[in-house]
Structure formats: structure tokens, C-alpha cells
């Protein structure tokens, strides 16, 4: 007869069996649904501090602000991913200094992203601008993968190759993150900046990889540095110089296996768009907003099924304070950048205003030409004016001023081309104008970016706007004689144009006869220092004809600008009710009410929203705090400082961790002269009580009677 286990042994056996069942059953019984949050930036372009380096003042942008927002999201949602869509390490003077001058030190952009805990980023086209040594150094410093599935490498080592994707497990969910970059990179950078790499088609790469990722993961996300390529409203294809450049809509249309596409490159913003079931989202450039995607998944067998996906963009406005941790981490780099920008290089006694710099031969454009011809030892120079907002003088001219004039990172090449090629380039540039005469009130400019309008120095010519596009360059002369089509010229231009950038195919990969491996902007600074002056008059080597067309263009660009169209109060009110947690809408609504002289009515509206109409008052304390802060700002604008303080105090009480509300309250109290006043009142009251009690003491009473 077999021995039966004792009662105690049977108990242990049963408990062990139950534990085994629970383990084998997995988390299905314990967790039937989970929510993931995905945050994404794009086209950060080196903006870490909330600062506009060209203007020399604060701005609502930068990774320090993003960091504060990311921390707030992670505090309430532990299942969060942080991603970036490329063009991250180039674009500000800070980024330039640490890519080209202080290369032995930690890159402040990479350091900030490391501290913020990015999970992955897609490589962007501007990551290639500074050359491969800089790109590899950034890859080495980044503690997150830089993805490029369509970038094929011949190096075959981990530092130089780009991983195609990563798979992260978040809240028990397997999330595949695929990264790609526009294959148009070779059109913009010289061969040595991309030696050993091939850039393949986006759609074909996605078709090759997404099905496999779909089998291995519960959620598949694409982060891609490429524009939409279509009109957002209609899906109509947009005209593009390079057909392979912007393919996001095409990817979504042909790859329904994707769940989300987070994208960039076009410096636009898209809160939410569904194409073929794929959710498309794009944050604003320069870390001016963050794309936020929320994914709700339900348990399905051993995996998860995506039940719902929503998205929005969150502006990094005044309601979000910069993260002191990121500011302190990058403070030395920021201060060094400001010191560099404030360096005086010369003086100019006359103000030079670039508003008409694309309509006539202008001293500021001639400054670029002179530096290019001097250091490139060239007969002719081709250059564009990047911004008509550039200004110099009167007074000291600093590095910051030169940066405003020439802010792109371009090297200088001198090429040998024919007179025919030069004329073709000038004809191509002249398409920026419509044919004269143009209808009254209609813009005289074609839909061509002004920074792609190249002007020439070293030759003389006229642009006749009465003639059709392609036949406008007349009286083209070199050395006082008509330029012959076969005549060979040494022409200085930047590396972007040499690569055919902007559609200048006639210049693409022209024979290089002189090469200056330095930024054109640095050459301009050196030229000014060497000459110790800036010419304030141009030689007039080119002009637009007829004269009345030129005058009409000048009047168009110098006319007073009409006021920017604003949304009505009613429209903004509807938007605020629909999206109460978007602080920017509250700010816009308050501004609209102030402009209409209706701040008291707006204050009453907010009171009703918060109290008498509970349907409109969100239950979330953070949202209630935002509404109280909005009401506080209404009162502040109206001069009702006590009411404003009361509302801001409510906001601080509801969300004590918000630095924005605390700082607003502190600023308000300082403005009203209340800082320390409450403490003083309490002290005075205590003294009064002590004095009163003391005077009632029997000894004082007897003394008074005596």
C-alpha cells in the first residue's frame, strides 16, 4: 500500500500547484489592458536652451523645456517612450561650436538627450553636414540608438553602421521602432560627407522590414526624417524638386502594417492624420512642440491588440518652464556660445537693411561675394541672401550679426564652368519672380523659396521680367565684354549649390579647382577683420528691368505688413472647450478678449466654467489648475491683481509641482509689491497681540492708575 503524503505536505503541494498555474497563466488575468505614451521631437537643430541665439533673447523652444514636459508625463505615465526624428545636432551656433571648434568636449545636445533618456532617434539629413568624423563622434556619445534602416554601410562596424530598428518592451508590450532618413541626402552634401554609405528608397525599405517587425512586435512605430509629400487636407501630391525626398504619405498608403509614423524634415506641424489606418504625427521644429501619441492595448492571447490610438502636439510655451537640470548641464556651453556671438569684428556707421537684398545689388550680399571671391580666388561668385531680415549697424558689428546674414553651414568651393552654365544658373534663379506686369494686389513672387535666388558678382547683367522664364538674363558681360557661352570661368559657390542643392543641376558636381575647407560664415568674419571695414555701397553690377517693375517690387517688400489674422473669441472658446488642456489656446483666448475689451466678461465665463457649469470643468486637478491659471491671467491683464493672485494660488494648490504657476504667482506678487508683505502683516499682527496682552497685564494696569 502506497504511503499518502501528510496533511502538511498536501497543503504545500496544492499551493505549489496553484503557483505554477498562475505562472503559466501569465499576466492575462492580472492585466487585460495597458496604455502607452509615445513622445517625439523632430528638427531640434541644436536648440537646447529656450533662447534665440540670432536675436540674443529668450524664446519658447528647446530641449530644456521638452525635458520638463517629459518628466511630467513620466510622473503620471510610467509606460512612456521618448523618440526623435532627426536633424538634431546641427542648426544653432551652440551646435556649430561643439561640432567644429570644441570637438574634444562632450556635445551639449547629445548630453542633454542622454540625460533626458531618449529611447531612439532617426538620423536626419543635416546630421551629415559636418562630415563623417563629427557624425561618428555623435553616434559614440549618444546613449541611445541612432537609426537608419535605409542607410546601407560598407563599414560593417557598430560605430559607423546604422541600426535599422530596435524593439523595446514597455509595460509588457513589445514596441518595434523603425528609423529612416530621406534618401535625398546625396543631393545636398559632398561625397566625402557620405563616403561608404548608400541611401535607399523609403517605401521599398519599409516594405522589406515592416512585415517581419509586425510578427515580432505588438506595436510597430516608424520614426522617419522625411516630409508628408502630400496636401494634408486632400492627399494631392505636392510639387517637389526631388521626388524621393518626402514620402511619408506614400509609406502609410502602402504599409498598413504600421501603427504610427512620427516624422519631420518639413518644419511643419501635424497633430493627427489617419492614412490607410496609419496614424501620422509631426511636432514643430526647434523643439517648439512635442508630438504625443497615446496607445491603448488589450490582451489577446499571449500578445496585445492595439484597440485605440490618438495623438496631439503640445506647444512648449510659457506654461512650461525649462528644466533646471538640463540648463545646468549645458550652461557652460550656452555661455561660451553667447560670448562667441558677442565678439565684435568691426564697426559700421550706416545701417544696412537687407529688405531689398533680393531686388537689387546690395552691400550685404556683396560682402558674401567679396569673401567668396577673395578666399576662393575666383573670377565670379554666386550667392543667395538667406534672410531679408538681416540688419547691420550703425555701431559695432558682432559675430551674431554675421550669423544672421549667413546662418547655414556651408563650405566654399571654386569650380570651373562655362559662360553657358553660368547663364543657365542665373536664368534658373530668376524664376523666383513672376512675369511683369502682375495683377494688382497679387504677389510678384513665384512659389520659390527666396533663399534659392542666387545673385552673381564679377559679371554684369540685367533681369528683364517682361520676358518669359528661361529668357530673362540680358546683357550678360564679363570684363566689359559679352560673356561667350564657351568661355571658362572660376566661380566661387557654397557646397550646397555644388551638390545641386535647390535644383541647380547645372552646377551639380562641377569641376572643383579650389577648395576651402571652412564655413563660408567664418570666411566672411575673417574677411571683415582683415579689411577692417564693411562697404556700405554696392557697385550695381546687376539690376531688374523695367524700372517700374523694380520699383513695384521694392514697394511690395517695404510696405507695412497687414495685421495677422486672428481667430474670433467664439472660435477660440469652442476650441478651448474641446481641448481644455492646451494652454496655448487659453493664452490666445485671453489675448482675443483683451483686444476686444472684454476681459471682465471673459473672467465671468471662466468662473462659470469652473463652478456653475461642471460639465466643462475637467475632474483632473492638473486641468483645473490650468483653468485657474487662465482665469488668473485674465484678471492680471485687467489689473485685478488680488483676484489674479487668488486664482494663481488655487492653481499652485492644485498642482504644486508646476514651476510655471509658482513663477507666475511670484512675478505677480513682485509686480504688486506683495512679496514679503504677508509675512510682515503677520509679524505686525503678532506684535499688536503681544502689545495688547502686555497692556492688559496687572502690573501695567496698576502703573497706569498710579
Q: What characteristics describe this protein?
A:
706 residues, alpha/beta, six-stranded mixed β-sheet, globular, disordered N terminus
Describe this structure in words.
This protein has 706 residues and is α/β, with parallel strands linked by helices. It has a six-stranded mixed beta sheet, covered by helices on one side. The N and C termini lie far apart (112 Å).
Sheet with the most strands?
A: 6 strands, mixed
Determine Rg (CA atoms, Å).
32 Å
- The low-pLDDT segments are 1-30, 613-619
Strand order of the largest sheet: 6-5-4-1-15-16
Write a compact overview of the structure shown.
With about 700 residues, the protein is of the alpha/beta class. Helix 17 runs antiparallel to helix 18 (about 620-640).
SSE layout and pairing:
Layout: H1 7-25, E1 33-41, E2 51-52, E3 57-58, H2 63-76, E4 80-84, H3 93-101, H4 108-116, E5 120-122, H5 132-141, E6 146-147, E7 151-153, E8 165-170, E9 173-181, E10 197-199, H6 202-216, E11 219-225, H7 248-254, E12 260-263, E13 270-275, E14 278-282, E15 289-300, E16 303-315, H8 324-341, E17 344-348, E18 352-353, H9 363-376, E19 380-384, E20 391-392, E21 395-398, H10 399-405, E22 411-418, H11 419-429, E23 454-457, E24 460-464, E25 473-478, E26 481-482, E27 488-494, H12 495-498, E28 511-519, H13 520-531, E29 542-545, H14 547-558, H15 569-578, H16 583-595, H17 599-612, H18 621-638, H19 641-654, H20 659-672, H21 677-695, H22 698-705
Parallel strand pairs: 1-4, 4-5, 5-6, 9-11, 11-12, 12-14, 19-27, 24-29
Antiparallel strand pairs: 1-15, 2-3, 7-10, 8-9, 13-14, 15-16, 17-21, 18-20, 19-23, 22-27, 22-28, 24-25, 25-26
Helix pairs in contact: 2-4, 3-8, 4-8, 9-13, 15-16, 16-18, 17-18, 18-19, 19-20
